[in-house]
């Protein structure tokens, strides 16, 4: 009986060590892929970017309780935004917000959604929605003034476009 108990305890320890080892290997693969992707800052290789995003999302899905899961989803969204994959980037940021609302990445994800809608998706209405939601949800965030400024710029660009169209009509 005593031997059975010792064997069970040893098996559990080996399983736990193996699980941590797999997690460590996954994190190392991500670090290697990040390094590989970011070696040439001038051009992002689409296949490397896709591979890195897959590593990020697989890690977050496999180890959802790990503190790095939210960070990796956030980074995946950043890569997708740089590839001009608007909807995929927004979807990843929404995962950060919903799955990790207590994470430090949740407010950043909410803010970045607005930036992506404005700069990548070219959807000023959705950007304004996101910035207003961010300001309401995180009024003490250091990014609130940035969100307010982007809202003002968003409106100013519309007014400038309107002025230019009036000028063309009146010539």
Describe this protein with a few key phrases.
single chain, 171 residues, mainly alpha, 0% strand, disordered N terminus
Write a concise synopsis of the structure shown:
It is built from 7 helices and no strands.
Task: Describe this structure as you would to a colleague.
The protein has seven helices and no strands. By secondary structure, it is mainly α. The N and C termini lie far apart (97 Å). The protein has helices spanning 2-38, 46-62, 68-82, 86-99, 105-119, 124-137, 144-169. The chain is globular, with a radius of gyration of 22 Å. Helix 2 runs antiparallel to helix 3, helix 3 (68-82) runs antiparallel to helix 4 (86-99) and helix 5 packs antiparallel against helix 6. Mean pLDDT is 83; it is low at 1-18. Helix content is 81%, strand content 0%. The longest helix is centred in the first third of the chain and has 37 residues, at 2-38.
């Amino acid at each position: 009986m005593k031997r059975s108990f010792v064997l069970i305890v040893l098996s559990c320890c080996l399983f736990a060590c193996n699980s941590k080892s797999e997690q460590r290997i996954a994190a190392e693969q991500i670090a290697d892929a990040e390094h590989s992707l970011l070696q040439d800052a001038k051009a992002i290789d689409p296949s490397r970017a896709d591979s890195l995003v897959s590593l990020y999302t697989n890690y977050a899905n496999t180890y959802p309780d790990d503190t790095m899961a939210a960070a990796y989803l956030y980074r995946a969204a950043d890569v997708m935004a740089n590839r001009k994959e608007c909807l995929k980037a927004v979807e990843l940021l929404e995962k950060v917000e919903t799955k990790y609302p207590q994470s430090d990445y949740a407010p950043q994800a909410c803010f970045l959604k607005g930036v992506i809608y404005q700069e990548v998706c070219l959807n000023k209405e959705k950007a304004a929605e996101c910035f207003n939601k961010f300001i309401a949800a995180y009024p003490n965030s250091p990014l609130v003034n940035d969100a307010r400024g982007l809202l003002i710029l968003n409106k100013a660009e519309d007014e400038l476009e309107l002025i230019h169209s009036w000028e063309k009509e009146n010539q």
